[in-house]
Amino acid sequence: MGLSETRARALTRKTARKLPIMRRFLIEEAGGPVPAWASLDAHDTLASLILVGQLDEDNENDRAVVGEIARRPYGEVAREITALMRGDDSPVTKVGSQWRLFSHEEAWHLLAPRLTADEVQRFEEAATEILSAASPEFELPIEERYLANIHGKVLPHSQTLRAGVARTLALMGTQGDRADHVPAVSYLPTLIVRRALLDREGWQIWASLDKHLATLAEAAPETLLEAIEQSLSTQPGSTAALFAQEGGPFFGGASHTGLLWALERLAWSPDHFARVAMILARLAALDPGGQVSNRPSESIATMFLPWFRVSEASDAQRLDALDTLLRRFSAQGWKTLVGAYPTGHGFAVGRESPLWRPWGQDGVPHPN
Questions:
Q1: Which residues contact 193 (CB under 8 A, 6 or more apart)?
Q2: How far apart are CA 214 and CA 38, in angstroms?
Q3: What is the residue range of 238's domain?
Q4: Looking at residue 316, what DSSP letter applies?
């Protein structure tokens, strides 16, 4: 179809592999067809859907959030969602107890103009509470955390809802102009990420948001970078403790990988490349190492490989960042410089480009 591989993969993620949705994405500029569900009068239900994106109805707190945003009992909302599923080209699907939009991005594009300031304010209050919660599982020793559900040490809202809320913030941060009846909606992600990360202390909140940090990085890039820098400056011991949450061979998992994925996405931006490199160097100095291969030193080494691009930063920008790295963090700088030297057996793992920000969306040439 003449699309770059990066663009094709992005469309796959955004459209859930549904051809009607992909067709509308591709011909949108020419005035593509609007699905029937976008013209329905079920305003409160549709508003709650695009603001949460997805939920687990087995979780009573998820149900309460949807009901609060819609200002209606959840049972009524669920009946209208079920009715939506019966229509042609339904925007909603359900697997087990989990409801979700097929394409959160398309639903936002079509329905955000119908949002009201009151609905967005109710979402703001709910999103702040949801994303500011530290998981009680981290009160348990690492070797017992797999029993968190049995001990009742779980977050009040499901990870399904938390992922949907984070995605809504990414859409607000990048396509906030669609909600043209709500003033300053593009600033809301900055406000909520600030409350969740800058106004709280301790590694627990970073670990609790681990799966969602890459999405929040696209929602509010400057705020997330500021939060990491503040944590490194004011509580380096707590930041170091994040790396210590890595389980052994029988209790796998690590709480720092989401932070690295967030930084790797932001590194695609020429404006953020050097800043990300300095943060990764500071994280590498705190990292004691471990069994998980995702390490700050590995992330920064890939950023400067001359034969493998994971950023839109120019060669001049990368050289300037490397000079700064050598001056401020000489040990990590020299390690990065030596590691960037081409060898006959070198390899690198690609970095996923952002899903909502424009960086890297047209594809960056990688070697075969």
A1: 131, 169, 216, 219, 220, 223, 224, 227
A2: 29
A3: 232-368
A4: H
For position 368, what pLDDT does the model report? Answer: 29
Give me the number of domains the chain comprises. 1
Q: Phi and psi at residue 294, in whole multiples of 5°?
A: -75, 105
* Euclidean distance between CA atoms 62 and 57, whole angstroms: 6
In 1-18, which positions are buried (b, 16+ CB within 10 angstroms) versus exposed (e)? eeeeebeeebbeebbeeb
Which two tokens mark 363?
């594809």
Percentage of residues of the chain with pLDDT beyond 70: 90
Pairwise CA distance, residues 183 & 217, whole Å: 22
**Any alpha helices (H) in 156-295, and if so which ranges?**
159-175, 188-193, 203-208, 213-219, 221-234, 236-243, 257-266, 273-286
User: What is the rounded average pLDDT of the residues 169-181?
Assistant: 93
Residue 43: the pLDDT is 66
- Structure-block tokens of residue 286: 């705190």
Which one is predicted more confidently, 340 or 161? Answer: 161
Asked, for residue 46, whether it belongs to a domain, the answer is no
Length of the chain (residues): 368
pLDDT band (50, 70, 90) for residue 329: very high
Rg (CA), the chain: 22
pLDDT in tens, 122-164: 999 999 999 999 999 999 988 888 888 899 999 999 999 999 9
- For 156, the token pair is 């009040």
294 within domain boundaries: yes
- Kindly state whether residue 191 falls inside one of the protein's structural domains: no
Residues 6+ apart with CB under 8 A from 135: 148, 153, 154, 155, 204, 207, 208
Question: What is the rounded distance in angstroms from the CA atom of residue 191 to the CA atom of residue 193?
Answer: 6
